[in-house]
Amino acid sequence: MINKTVQEKPLEQLIISAQNGDTEVHNYLLKTYQPFVAKCVSDVCKRYINPQHDDEFSIGLTAFNDAIFSYSIDKGSSFLNFASIVIKRKVIDYIRYSQKGVKTVSIDEDFDDDQLENPTEIRIAKEHYQEKENAAMLRDEIEEFKKKLSEYKLSLIELTEVSPKHNDARESAVRTARILYADKDLREYVWKKKKLPIKGLSKQVDVSKKTLERNRKFILAIFIVLSEDFIYLKDYLKGVGL
Q: What is the pTM for the complete model shown?
């Protein structure tokens, strides 16, 4: 039976204990958060999930376990938010894999030359498949990005209106966001207050307070991207100097 003092510890502290090899805490997390896993999986499948019979639950629980060991408290997001993303992505991948069937999946297998009637078509098919997968993952990240923006009382539509119009201004704002994220105290201020620390940030950058205020929303948006595991979104935003 799990020690009562363990149950009273903050979740993030339990995650760190599990990452450091505490098997008792690890098993406690896997057992205690099964309803949470089932809820995440149910959100994807749009139906009731039976932990005893549905394969999707097993996929979700495995993803939850992966999340335990890949979570970093320095990212700023809560563990449950992070785990929810990991679980849903893994379940979506599993569903896509299951629905495609053997023929579609086989494009990623190795073939001998005499098995390929048209190697060029196989290569193109692989490229198209990967493009679709990347696009799907980008869409998922954008949805999560929207949720994060809402926590800061921001929206994508609003960002299109307030984003700096000139390249120099955008690059300057991105550099400012990087400096903001790199400073531990300023970073924690943003995570806690959900706003830009104009006074403290102005001491770190060669930008006027007036300019910081004007680009406040854009800087916050870039800061959010830097703070999260938005792999595809970060790559997509390289065009603005991220």
A: 0.51
